[in-house]
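User: Can you help me understand a structure? I only have the sequence.
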Amino acid sequence: MNANYIAGEWMGANGSVENINPSDCSDMIGEYAQASTEQTSIAVHAASQALGAWRETGPQARADMLERIGAELAARREELGTLLSREEGKTLAEGIGEVARAAAIFKFYAGEVFRIRGERMDSVRPGLAVEVTREPVGVIGIITPWNFPMAIPAWKIAPALAYGNCVIFKPAELVPGSAWALAEIISRAGLPAGVFNLVMGKGSVVGQAMLENPDVAAISFTGSEKVGRHVIATATARMAKVQVEMGGKNPLVVLDDAELDAAVDCALQGAFHSTGQRCTASSRLIVERGIHSRFVSRLVQRTQALRVGHALHAQTQIGPVVDASQLGQDLAYIQIGKDAGARLLCGGERLPLRHDGFYLQPALFADVVPEMRIAREEIFGPVACVLVADSYEHALALANDTPYGLSSGICTQSLKHATDFKRRAQAGMVMVNTPTAGVDYHVPFGGRKGSSYGSREQGSHAAEFFTTVKTSYTAS
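Assistant: Let's start by predicting it. Here is the structure, written out as tokens:
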């Protein structure tokens, strides 16, 4: 059984879970310990005890540790990418790419250690000098989802450590293998005992214990909107700092002047790659009337040609859905769309392949109106719907007609419309002639409305969450 990592030691537990390959349900990847409330408290205490010395550790030492983690991830990207794809279901190329991205994130924050800036200025009062500095927040609880089991933990853990905080890491229950592998690498990077802790287990047990513990100064969470709202309510009730990413119902607008093949590529990649299991996925395709029939016809052809199969097979373009529960949710939404009067153009059926896995043919709906549930609620699977727009202004209004605001895209050759869309789209990230899914690690990530709460993730903007500002006055 793969154990939790607490206070610098590998600690077993009374219970464990089996990690099953969604491409082949007969393939058990391993057994992973389930931490208890008591073990979570031990981890928090260890992190609290380690905080004083860690925050005083010099920047070179911290940078060297982060660099070692990044270097090992990069060197083992094929091995770890295979593990990631085996347990999460994304294609092998996507799994290897995600590990490489995690490596780059740790290396980036190894450099950010040296760029923690302050300010010095004169006071408005004579004889006083003012300094503005950034300090670690303290013990950070990190709760991550299953869809990016290496990249999202990396972009939370790396800045937390870079800025001098201690970490309690709770990964999603479906992907303990990637989390354990990352923790094992971190455990050998030279961090003092207690600075980093891995506590695998149920959100209702481990996550709740982190939310309620007064020694956890901040919580960074990525997951569903329902759980995210609970995280916000519970943590802010005791004045903890909170950063929450919850999802999206992202629009891709296709105007009449769009280059057809490029627009279809954007839609196909954004909607269906990574099996549509991305919070930035293009689940609403808003197409201007003049190009609508040609766009839909081409997209149906391309969607039907997608090769669904075992995540580790070279020919596979779309892997399985992550588990039976998610597959059931996807199929339920497909039926909801049909019942509401939407027209299923292709896909939407479970595929009986050679391996017993959770395979779903990507589904595309037409005749969709904004009031339908499939156009308003996040499905989190390979399901997309097409809405018709009468003009650019109508398309923009449809794009903004959502309770979410994470990513928003447009395909057009008009500089006027592209510029206007970047300004008026109600989203934290805007994409022009590129898929809504796919972001860089050195720039801010986050949304508006129901998608995000708190400061942005990634890049130098991560300092806003992982540090606190102090203003000091000194009399001359």
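Now, to help you interpret it: The two ends are 61 Å apart (CA to CA). Residues 250-432 form a domain with the Aldehyde Dehydrogenase; Chain A, domain 2 fold (CATH 3.40.309.10). Let me know which part you'd like to focus on.
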